[in-house]
Here is the input.
Amino acid sequence: MVVRELDNHTFRLAVAQFDQAAERMNLDPNLRERLKLPERSLLVNVPVRMDDGAVKMFAGYRVQHDSSRGPSKGGIRYHPDANLGEVAALAMWMTWKCALAGLPYGGAKGGVQVNPKQLSRAELQRLTRRYAAAIFPLIGPDKDVPAPDVGTDPQVMAWMMDTYSMQVGYAVPGVVTGKPLSIGGSLGREEATGRGVVDVTLEAMRHLKLDIQTATVAVQGFGNVGANTARIMAETGARVVAVSDVSGGLYNAKGLAIPELLAWYRANGQTFSSCTMGDRITNEELLALDCTVLVPAALSEQITEANAAKISCRILAEGANGPTTLEADRILTDKGVFIIPDILANSGGVIVSYFEWVQDMQRFFWNSLDIRDRLHEIITAAFHRTLQFSRQRGVTMRMAALMSGIDKVAQAHLSRGLYP
Ligand code: GLU
Here is the structure.
């Protein structure tokens, strides 16, 4: 049963994945009912004074899916389509993601229904501070720790940290992660999700005996995850043949000049709409490219029943959360695509968020080599545990990742028992 308030296609996808895994692992029926629904969901209506003097209302959410293993953790998304069901799905995925990586966190997610590109910087700041004040009772370094996601960045996290700190009366860097370095951010956090995607992709290539020097890579999405994945892939010697954003994509069979492209993107209003540094292609064409590695790093449910048959990559490394629908997953698996599921492939972000939080709590900071090495260690270990689990149990990588994550959460619930 999905409660009516949460019912939307993304939540249904998360629950369907959970059900498949729960069935396969014979999960205790009581726990199964319990883990399907979030612990706590908050809906806030955020009033913002716009630059023209008018007050506009924005719907905001914070959903805590599970906190049995520690504070709940997860990003905040600013997007015009943000809604309670989607935020709840993303919160559930955070629970499994943190458990799979072995981080002492539960899962949460937040969102505001807004197009941040349509706000001035001052409006964005007022929106962020008012939203932070509205979810204040729920968050805290030992309770629930937000981070960036689609449409938010270190500056937004800085305003959240400041708003929280002003309420309690002293600086609390550990209340959010993904902050600027000046207020307790961590080295390596900005690129962490992309670096993690590359780390696990390289492990998958080793496993499949593919050579990085001859590999071709296509990346959908050029936000934090897509842009860093493309950059680091190119640095490791792979040929990044295609990238895209909402305006469409660019293709060059010989490989795009990624550093130049990144500089161009920054200098030209963060859109490829007028870019001529490659042949223009659509997002649909990008997804269908014949390539070694395809990285969906945009929004959820991009690979569906309608286009899955056309996908012709060897490895699908899911940089985005929930990019593949259930039907598409089946089609790709039948085609023999090696899928590195989202909760594993994109876990580098929350892994380095964990490092940031630990550094903030200890008031002791690490160097970038420490960050890179420890990220590599945790994410490659998670990859190999998942691969081994998938082979031993004869399940897909996605099922293996979900089952391992869910099992850790189930163990925590069984140890703690049901209150009261
Ligand atoms: N928003 C990122 C994710 O989906 C990072 C979350 C975090 O660092 O807490 O995993």
Summary: The first strand starts at residue 40 and ends at 49. The pocket of glutamic acid is lined by residues 73-75, 147, 149, 177, 321, 346, 349-350, 353 (CB under 6 Å).
